[in-house]
């Protein structure tokens, strides 16, 4: 079991710049929700429990160093890259059915979450992200909201 760090911020705009060049027919908006550069597109599952949202993805042979997770108040973005195991041009394949490439998925939550206590674990090729829900009535004001009201 390997812990994967979660950055408590939205991905910076330049984060997707390198991905745009690999997208065929990029219209400037498609990458905001999900996307694939290459053929690897892991399956995701989102479960809602009374106190936590749990997101799981099948990401076999993706190393923790090839995963980035960004979490803002109501949005979670998972980015990853599955690289070929053997990238030797001298090899010849008799079958080549496995897929590789970059992927990302963004999930929008209907309520605020507690990003500070969110956890991500990678175990046996399954990424599990647990994001606690913010209790109703305990909404925090952001610094921007506080400044606007002052």
Structure report:
With 150 residues, this protein is mainly β. It has one domain: Immunoglobulin-like, CATH 2.60.40. Helices cover 7% and strands 37% of the residues. The protein is built from two helices and ten strands. It has helices at 17-20, 143-149, and strands at residues 2-3, 6-7, 34-38, 44-48, 52-58, 67-72, 75-82, 101-108, 119-123, 126-132. The strands form two sheets. Strands 1-9-10-5-4 form a five-stranded antiparallel beta sheet, with no helix packed on it. The protein has a five-stranded mixed beta sheet with strand order 2-6-7-8-3, with no helix packed on it. A hairpin with a 2-residue loop joins strand 9 and strand 10 (126-132). The longest helix is centred in the last third of the chain and has 7 residues, at 143-149. The protein is elongated and about 60 Å long. The N and C termini lie far apart (47 Å). 17% of the residues are buried.
| Rg over C-alpha atoms, rounded to the nearest angstrom | 18 Å
N/C terminus separation: 47 Å
Mean pLDDT: 75
Oligomer: single chain
CATH class: Mainly Beta
CATH architecture: Sandwich
| Number of separate strands | 10
- How many discrete structural domains? 1
Which sequence of SSEs, written as H and E, runs from N to C? Answer: EEHEEEEEEEEH
The residue fraction in helices comes out at: under 10%
Categorize the overall geometry: elongated
């Amino acid at each position: 079991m390997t812990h994967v760090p979660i950055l408590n911020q939205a991905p910076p705009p330049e984060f997707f710049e390198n991905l745009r060049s690999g997208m065929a027919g990029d219209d400037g908006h498609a990458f905001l929700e999900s996307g694939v550069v290459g053929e690897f597109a892991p399956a995701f599952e989102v479960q809602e429990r009374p106190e936590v949202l749990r997101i799981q993805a099948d990401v076999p042979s993706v190393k923790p160093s090839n995963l980035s997770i960004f979490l803002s108040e109501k949005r979670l973005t998972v980015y990853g890259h599955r690289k070929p195991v053997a990238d030797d041009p001298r090899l010849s394949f008799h079958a080549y059915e496995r897929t590789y490439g970059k992927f990302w998925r963004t999930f929008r939550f209907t309520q605020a979450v507690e990003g500070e206590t969110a956890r991500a674990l990678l175990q046996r090729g399954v990424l599990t992200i647990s994001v606690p829900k913010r209790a109703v009535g305990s909404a925090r004001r952001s610094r921007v909201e506080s400044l606007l009201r002052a």
